[in-house]
Design a protein that fits this description.
By secondary structure, the chain is an alpha+beta fold. It is built from 25 helices and 26 strands. A five-stranded mixed beta sheet has the order 2-13-10-3-9. The protein has a five-stranded antiparallel beta sheet with strand order 16-15-14-18-19. Strands 5-4-7-8 form a four-stranded antiparallel beta sheet. Bound molecules: 2-(butylsulfanyl)adenosine. 2-(butylsulfanyl)adenosine binds next to strand 3, strand 8 and strand 13.
Length: 672
């Protein structure tokens, strides 16, 4: 193919991909399947890698893959990003309306009602139809250049649709969908990482990552709610008309916007959304009411940094008052001591709340929470209830201040403070409470996957002294098991079978199961691709670990700390004795060839003829290496269907992307 032909096909592919991307992410109405979409992307990537001069910043392949930044540069907003004044009651709203009424000649001006998304405001600039710059609000006058991160958001068009103006700047709210937030936190919890408090902070944190590859892993989304500037003599009459136009350019505009002719219609909209908030997959903290006609907006102008023509009518926070009955402690799997509040049960927004998280002792002390206090609790969205404050005026003098114990509530071991962390820890590896959490994790689906051992069974086994560490699971005897509550012959047999089956789990799974803080399944796979056995990992020094891409000091120190404990090493020995795979699969295979010697592969997406493990084994069998993340040292990305962001990373690093068939012919060619 010559350059001209390539240019034509590339342009054609980009517009097809942009269109299908929009149909999928913005319209929720895809016309083609994932496989077809991936093939278009794959073709574009391979053309771009053959003709790298044709790559542009706005190509759909460029949504991710940029090198991490040292810092964000500052951007001065051409027009300041304003804030809104607030109304907290119908009276506030009417007062606002009356003020405008007296300033406008019109006696019944219309208002656009929109939801007030609880995320973070950003500004997007398009020049000649191309997304060229995106910034956070910052202080309203200057913000941070987060262009690369914004490009990873699939609902932000990189090129405008249809006829576009020479210059366009729009504003909107970036948010973390609620359903995704729950999944994200669950995943973090599984990996022993600290969970996030709410979707808004997580959205902000995700957008302010210096490495856009990290942002790309976060499923951020964006609603566009206003036009800041446009060149081309385009003019619109109203806010809602403007939003329709922005929608036609490819932006995601909220479908719940509505026109209100009277204050009582605005109040109706406000009430309706208070009732229906839980049906939305994004947090909203109110509605925004805007004078619909743009000439009226112009006429009304701003007071300071707030426009007169708009107001935020906040939703009442779902709060309630109750008594703080007690502060209890939970011991986490990694030994972290997590305080929580036991509350006098109270209804908050239709849900009975009995407990609230207290995070750590600093949180309790900074709010001066005392047992017996009256406290205000708040439930925001789907998130766990929080204590906002205690009511000091209601104190009788009988309240008891909380002191964090110095020893573990479960095993009495002295608790320790770790530098840089607010949490305190029990470091006794035989602590029963930790063991309960660890067993739960060890047998879970993503770890050793032992069905029938979660929950109560695990706890009973610990309490009856049958297991003192996770390795004891492999030495359980039938007669003893049958003595446990609810364990009949059938369930005992099934459990023993599941335990036995789990011995075949690959080494990476074993590493995941140990529950080493910060070492979840992905890191475990990465490590077991680097090391030939668990023993080699144990013997490795910090430097070797830190040389592995994706492994930073937090992970390497955590690994070193774990294996420095004699108890943990004894437990590993027991697991070995039980017959678990302590040696990486590639070494076990004896029919090695050297056809792929020293070639490094990353596999992504669904393959037609192999499972993930099969293809990895095949590569290793031929002397190749498989890693889980792409680096400069990667030779090939073997991509199946739904390859995801790895494809972008590979193409930006110029790494060859091959299909399953191409992989097979690679082996065949080398064999011949
Ligand atoms: S219009 C001229 N519309 O609320 C005012 N803002 O305090 C510009 N927000 O940080 C904002 N939803 O990010 C507007 N539908 C909406 C909004 C909205 C959320 C945020 C905005 C800003 C804050 C204003």
């Amino acid at each position: 193919m010559n350059t001209k032909e390539a240019t034509n096909r590339i342009l054609q592919l980009r517009s097809l991909i942009d269109r299908h991307n929009h149909l999928y992410f913005v319209e929720n109405d895809p016309e083609i399947g994932d496989g077809q979409f991936d093939r278009l992307m794959l073709e574009l990537r391979s053309l771009e890698s053959s003709f790298p001069d044709l790559i542009t910043h706005q190509s759909p392949t460029q949504r991710v893959g940029a090198a991490p930044l040292a810092g964000f540069s500052e951007i001065s907003h051409t027009l300041p990003m304003l804030s809104l004044s607030n109304a907290f009651s119908d009276t506030d709203l009417s007062a606002w309306y009356q003020r405008l009424y007296s300033m406008l000649d019109d006696t019944d001006f219309e208002m656009a009602c929109e939801l007030k998304y609880d995320g973070l405001a950003v500004s997007l600039l398009y020049e000649q139809g191309l997304f060229t710059r995106g910034a956070t609000r910052g202080n309203g006058v200057t913000g941070e250049d987060v262009t690369l991160n914004l490009k990873t958001i699939k609902t932000i068009p990189l090129r405008l649709h249809g006829e576009f103006p020479d210059l366009l700047e729009v504003r909107g709210e970036v948010y973390f969908p609620k359903s995704e937030f729950i999944k994200f936190n669950a995943q973090r919890e599984q990996e022993g990482l600290q969970t996030y408090a709410n979707p808004r902070n997580t959205a902000a944190g995700s957008l302010r990552q210096l490495d856009s590859n990290v942002t790309a892993e976060r499923p951020l989304d964006m609603f566009v709610y206003s036009l800041a500037q446009i060149e081309d003599n385009m003019s619109f009459n109203t806010q809602l008309e403007t939003l329709d136009y922005l929608k036609s350019l490819g932006f995601k505009v909220n479908p719940n916007n509505s026109l209100a002719k009277t204050v009582s219609k605005v109040v109706e909209y406000h009430r309706m959304w208070i009732q229906n908030l839980s049906s939305l997959d994004y947090d909203c903290d109110g509605i925004v009411v805007k004078v619909n006609r743009l000439d009226y907006q112009q006429h009304l102008g701003n007071i300071g940094r707030e426009p007169r023509w708009a107001i935020a009518y906040k939703f009442p926070a779902i709060q309630a008052q109750t008594r703080l009955m007690d502060i209890r402690l939970n011991v986490g799997r990694t030994g972290s001591i997590n305080p929580y509040a036991l509350l006098d049960p109270v209804e908050v927004g239709g849900v009975i709340v009995k407990q609230a998280t207290l995070h750590n002792s600093d949180y309790i002390y900074s709010k001066d929470l005392r047992i017996g206090d009256w406290v205000v609790i708040e439930r925001a969205g789907e998130v766990i209830p929080q204590i906002v404050r205690s009511d000091k005026e209601k104190r009788t003098g009988n309240e008891t201040p909380f002191t964090m114990p110095v020893s573990c509530p479960s095993c009495n071991e002295e608790l320790v403070n770790r530098t840089d962390e607010a949490a305190i820890y029990c470091t006794n590896s035989t602590c029963p409470a930790q063991l309960e959490r660890l067993v739960e994790h060890f047998v879970s689906k993503g770890a050793m996957d032992i069905e029938g051992m979660g929950g109560k069974v695990g706890i009973s086994l610990i309490q009856s002294g049958l297991i003192a560490d996770v390795a004891d699971i492999y030495f359980l005897q039938k007669e003893k098991l049958e003595e446990i509550d609810r364990m009949g012959e059938k369930s005992t047999n099934n459990l023993l079978k599941a335990i036995n089956e789990s011995k075949k789990q690959p080494t990476a799974r074993i590493l995941t199961s140990l529950g080493i803080p910060h070492v979840g399944s992905e890191i475990s796979y990465l490590l077991m691709n680097k090391f030939t056995s668990i023993d080699e990992l144990i013997a490795s020094d910090q430097e070797t670990l830190l040389n592995i891409p994706s492994i930073g000091p937090k992970i390497s120190e955590s690994i070193a700390e774990y294996f420095s404990k004699p108890n943990n090493n004894r437990m590993i020995e027991k697991l070995r004795l039980a017959g678990l795979n302590m040696v990486s699969e590639s070494i076990i295979d004896s029919e090695n060839s050297n056809l792929l010697a020293d070639l490094r592969f990353v596999v992504t997406g669904r393959l037609d003829n192999y499972s993930r493990t099969e293809i990895q084994d095949l590569i290793k069998k031929h002397g190749g290496k498989v890693t889980s993340s792409i680096s400069n040292g990667t030779d090939y990305l073997l991509a199946g269907q739904d390859g995801g962001s790895k494809l972008d990373t590979a193409s930006s690093l110029g790494i060859q992307i091959i299909t399953e068939t191409e992989f097979e012919s690679l082996i065949d060619n080398r064999e011949s």
